[in-house]
């Protein structure tokens, strides 16, 4: 266990306070579009309680792993990562409660169930935003110990360059984009409007755009170039796998929001492909942004 | 989670600052509280259907008629959408006057307000207000 001397270290505590303040910024920026989406308020009280609890529980390990690749402060080891996951959730809860009160979405006549449901649902994207605050709001080298900060960045960057890291971040990107559009009625509506041919074209379009993003990452220069890797291998290794992951995540998010209930199989496939389109772009772009 | 082994040499790095313990614990408490509460209400409410109580808050005479402010409260365990709230009374001349409005959503154990508009004083004719129907969200 940490010695009493280090736990009260002023610099370490100050650094954590700065990181947490930045995390609040990240939480608000990331989840504000969702806080201003009425379907999200409604889902907060009518969505299945079991699915909401499951969603919240699954978010904890996802945040802990995300902290390993792109945390809001330096983190090492299971305990540190878990604490950061809960800290991000605390930031998500507080930020969403604060904003929802400010916007008068939370009102006096609401039952505790409605209030807590609304806050919990918004806290989840808020926590992801909080976790990504450092990569998004860029604190690279602005600390006193900028060399130290750069070293942290390089450690995380190297972690992200592994295959597992790339896929995990793709999953986070897919999750985030899917989460942003899945609550709206338009997902199901578009699925119903599209013909089967549109759906097939959408799959091709999703894959094409994803692969373009994968190439863009290679050209950005931060990732080590995979010399001599042929097109097909890269396509199979990353693009297809990330697309499959995006579709699974889309299906999970749709189920969580109750959008799959009562849909026929064909409609279910089409709606999943529709949500899979933004999810796939989020998956492909994640590595470019982070 | 794969316990990272590339721990920094810097001794201070491995120590967790007090603030992190604090915020992490607050987060864990909030998550535990939310899960506990949601699971408890989910178990208690179960699938009991919406049960909507409509009450008159007050009647106001206005320049263009009478406004009856009503409050709808859902005593049931699940939310209702598209709740139609209506009211009617018998005017002095014997005609029945009715009015209604639509609530987008009425969550479980929550209330929502609305207004019914009439051209005669509804207090004279035995005003009745109630929910007429709803759709499942």
TrEMBL record, chain A:
<feature type="transmembrane region" description="Helical">
    <location>
        <begin position="269"/>
        <end position="289"/>
    </location>
</feature>
<dbReference type="Pfam" id="PF09622">
    <property type="entry name" value="DUF2391"/>
</dbReference>
<keyword id="KW-0472">Membrane</keyword>
<feature type="transmembrane region" description="Helical">
    <location>
        <begin position="50"/>
        <end position="69"/>
    </location>
</feature>
<keyword id="KW-0812">Transmembrane</keyword>
<feature type="transmembrane region" description="Helical">
    <location>
        <begin position="238"/>
        <end position="257"/>
    </location>
</feature>
<feature type="transmembrane region" description="Helical">
    <location>
        <begin position="21"/>
        <end position="44"/>
    </location>
</feature>
<feature type="transmembrane region" description="Helical">
    <location>
        <begin position="163"/>
        <end position="182"/>
    </location>
</feature>
<dbReference type="InterPro" id="IPR024464">
    <property type="entry name" value="DUF2391"/>
</dbReference>
<feature type="transmembrane region" description="Helical">
    <location>
        <begin position="197"/>
        <end position="217"/>
    </location>
</feature>
<keyword id="KW-1133">Transmembrane helix</keyword>
<feature type="transmembrane region" description="Helical">
    <location>
        <begin position="81"/>
        <end position="103"/>
    </location>
</feature>
<dbReference type="InterPro" id="IPR013416">
    <property type="entry name" value="CHP02587_IM"/>
</dbReference>
<protein>
    <submittedName>
        <fullName>Membrane protein</fullName>
    </submittedName>
</protein>
UniProtKB/TrEMBL annotation, chain B:
<feature type="transmembrane region" description="Helical">
    <location>
        <begin position="21"/>
        <end position="40"/>
    </location>
</feature>
<keyword id="KW-0472">Membrane</keyword>
<protein>
    <recommendedName>
        <fullName>TIGR02588 family protein</fullName>
    </recommendedName>
</protein>
<keyword id="KW-1133">Transmembrane helix</keyword>
<keyword id="KW-0812">Transmembrane</keyword>
């Amino acid at each position: 266990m940490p010695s009493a001397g280090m736990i009260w270290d002023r610099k370490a505590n100050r650094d954590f306070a700065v990181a947490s303040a930045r995390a609040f910024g990240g939480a608000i920026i990331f989840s504000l579009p969702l806080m201003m989406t009425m379907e999200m308020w409604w889902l907060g009280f009518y969505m299945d309680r079991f699915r909401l609890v499951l969603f919240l529980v699954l978010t904890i390990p996802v945040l802990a792993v995300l902290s390993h690749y792109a945390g809001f402060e330096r983190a090492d080891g299971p305990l540190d990562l878990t604490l950061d996951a809960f800290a991000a959730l605390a930031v998500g809860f507080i930020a969403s409660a604060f904003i929802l009160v400010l916007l008068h979405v939370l009102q006096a006549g609401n039952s505790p169930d409605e209030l807590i449901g609304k806050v919990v649902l918004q806290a989840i994207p808020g926590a992801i935003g909080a976790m990504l605050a450092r990569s998004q709001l860029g604190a690279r080298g602005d600390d006193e110990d900028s060399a130290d900060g750069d070293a942290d960045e390089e450690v995380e960057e190297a972690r992200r360059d592994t295959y597992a890291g790339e896929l995990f971040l793709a999953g986070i990107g897919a999750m985030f984009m899917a989460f942003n559009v899945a609550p709206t009625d338009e997902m199901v509506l578009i699925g119903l409007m599209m013909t089967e041919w549109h759906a097939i074209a959408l799959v091709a379009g999703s894959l094409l755009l994803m692969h373009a993003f994968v190439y863009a990452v290679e050209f950005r220069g931060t990732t080590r170039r995979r010399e001599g890797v042929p097109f097909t291998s890269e396509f199979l290794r990353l693009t297809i796998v990330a697309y499959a992951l995006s579709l699974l995540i889309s299906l999970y998010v749709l189920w969580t929001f109750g959008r799959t209930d009562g849909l026929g199989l064909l409609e279910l496939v089409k709606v999943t492909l529709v949500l899979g389109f933004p999810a796939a772009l989020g998956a492909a772009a994640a590595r470019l942004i982070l | 989670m794969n316990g990272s082994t590339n721990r920094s040499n810097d001794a201070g790095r491995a120590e967790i600052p007090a603030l992190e313990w604090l915020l992490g614990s607050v987060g864990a408490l909030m998550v535990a509280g939310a899960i506990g509460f949601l699971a408890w209400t989910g178990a208690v409410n179960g699938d009991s259907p919406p049960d909507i109580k409509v009450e008159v808050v007050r009647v106001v005479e206005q320049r263009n008629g009478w406004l009856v402010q009503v409050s709808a409260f859902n005593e049931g365990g699940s939310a209702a959408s598209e709740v139609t709230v209506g009211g009617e009374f018998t005017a002095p001349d014997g005609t029945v006057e009715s009015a209604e409005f639509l609530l987008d959503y009425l969550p479980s154990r929550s209330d929502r307000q609305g207004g019914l508009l009439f051209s005669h004083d509804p207090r004279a004719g035995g005003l009745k207000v109630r929910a007429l129907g709803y759709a499942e969200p």
